[in-house]
Predict the 3D structure of the following.
Amino acid sequence: MTMQVRAVAVSLVLVLVLALAGTAGLSPQVEASPPAGFASGQILVQFRPGTAASEVSSAHGINRGQVLRTLDRIGVQVVRVPVGDELRAAARYRANPNVLYAEVDGVVRALGFTPNDPMLPDQWGLARVEATLAWGVTRGNSTIRIAILDTGIDAGHRDINPKVVAARNFTTSPTVSDRHGHGTHVAGIAAAVTNNARGIAGMGFDVVLMNGKVLDDTGSGTWSGVANGIIWAADNGARVINLSLGGTSHSATLENAVNYAWGRGVVVVAAAGNSNTSALMYPAAYANAIAVGATDRNDARASFSNFGAWVDVAAPGVDILSTFPRSWLGADRYRWMNGTSMSAPFVAGLAGLVWTTPWGTSNTAVRNRIQATVDPIITDQPIGGRINAARAVGAR
Amino acid sequence: MRCGQPRGTAMIGELEPRHRAGAARAVRRAMADLARRLKVNRQGIALRKVVPTVWPDASLGCPEPDRVYAQALTPGYAVLLSCGDDEYEYRTDGGRILFCVASKGPGR
């Protein structure tokens, strides 16, 4: 018993000495819990300053370690060890008095960023496209303008209006504000004010909005009005144009406008339509627009979504919560809506984010990046893969 | 113009309770509009059918070929009215009423 007490006391003293030495920055690192994931077949080792090269070589020989490379500035060696032996090898190195510390080479993943918008838990679509992971890499910025060409954006809604940097009315409505609801909803999905402890988060986070009212207060518009809106957006700095609208007739004027915007370097995103048909919807079907179909909570094609090889990508479009024009009392409102109209702004917001990544070199590059990083989905008819924001911005 | 005796019965009472108020409002507005269009007494117009519907977009399933529409699903009602042997279809969403298809009658 006495011997045991003495042994414990000696151990405590040793620990105390080592801990005090640690304050000088030269103590062996106390073994910590290893990370959940670490690189296979390699560990990180730092020898004490002044350790002879022969002793370093001897330590590697004993532990079957091979120096792969050295982080010169901090004197850390990346050492190859047998696969599966990483934890034990690190422990053996730590037992060598010449070793300051040895640890497995933990795999670091993007932590993401979770904004404080209280309705975020109800925004299943953002979770599905892994938006919070993406926001750990980029949250966009105010140089990126997304033009929402729609029924207008509510002029006083506190969760969306601060984002609007330009507005123009191309309809006969007396106001550029939104008296229908559709445009305000679409705008919120793309880029509601985010991390403001209010309402919802927007896919584009810090990107800003242009409000081009091309649909009247009943939700319909003319080809010329939409074409005018596209040209206005392209000429006034839009990097992305969202068109949550469409018709079943081709219009050369509308196609010309889409091509004009594309030629000015703008990413054009459009809704594929909600008639559960392969019939083409315009402008989505034009070559220079990204046609967006809708998915549901199960990552399946939404029952209403149009489909076909002409649909480029899919995004959540069922039970989507977003901003809605204020009540007559002035209270901010939010509603759930359904449709490919809701899917398109997820893609538009993501395009805004991708513009701020290394893939944001051109509209072609942004479009290719979004389309190349989709996740496969369950679908009875083709609507492309579902966008993945985290992959698109390089978060994983 | 006269419609003659109205035939058919209103089916609003057969709808799920959550649809009844909206359907009744849609029918009232449709009848008022048709009476105005045909210049007939509203009492002569019969309700043939009222069906809760989710339209695929803001066209309420009745698009004009040279226009584009907001692509959000839009809940509302299809209302079928008659005046004599002629039938008239209206479509509604929460806020407006659209005279869509006429089997005979005044056209759009």
Summary: Residues 2-23 of chain A form the longest helix (22 residues).
